[in-house]
Amino acid sequence: GNSVTQMEGPVTLSEEAFLTINCTYTATGYPSLFWYVQYPGEGLQLLLKATKADDKGSNKGFEATYRKETTSFHLEKGSVQVSDSAVYFCALSDNDYKLSFGAGTTVTVRA
Amino acid sequence: DAGITQSPRHKVTETGTPVTLRCHQTENHRYMYWYRQDPGHGLRLIHYSYGVKDTDKGEVSDGYSVSRSKTEDFLLTLESATSSQTSVYFCAINDPGESNYGYTFGSGTRLTVV
Fold it and tell me: Mind telling me how many Å the CA of B76 is from chain A's nearest CA?
């Protein structure tokens, strides 16, 4: 079956630091890959996505590249801000039109 | 995002009582989903629907039932609530025919079973 593994948190950073959250997946087909973000007390928002190998998703300074050879979709941001403090979820969707999520990574950015 | 709303936003109920959560969409999307969010588990799929009266189980469906009598509404029922069902419940919608191929989530329902 499909599964997503992402690095455990929590992650604490200083403002302007570089952020990486690792995500690897297992899928039977050729999935689409997503990063969702959940700010405190809110629902999930789509941050970025990639639908095929070597695609790069980007949004709000975040980037992730779909690497089929390593079955990975790592999230990166070059300079984080306090407002980036949130829980980040890696997810995949296969031909079954269902999202499978990783456990989530809590990121706290300190001023 | 007004395209999907969940009700109620918060609920406290007693063990053994039935509870129904509602998800309403205005996007005319074919697929609707119910997830639960628990620390350390991310979001796990409870049930989903791929059309009116067409539903199927997810990975954590025991103790839950769903109904979809019209496109816009997807109801989740806890038949006899237990403390293990204390969680935050999220509804999501999706239409694979859309070019952006994205899932949109509601704001969540925080359910406490005492």
Answer: 17
> What is the token pair recorded at B106?
């509601």
| Stretch (H or E) spanning A32 | strand A32-38
Residue A64 contacts residue A75 (beta carbons within 8 Å): yes
Token pair in block for residue A68: 């089929």
pLDDT at site B2 = 58
Chain A residues whose CB is inside 8 A of the B108 CB are: 43
pLDDT for position A1:
81
Q: Which residues pair with A55 in a beta bridge?
A: none
Q: What token pair was written down for B86?
A: 């204390």
**E-strand spans in B4-113?**
4-7, 10-13, 19-25, 31-38, 42-51, 54-57, 64-70, 73-78, 87-94, 104-105, 109-113
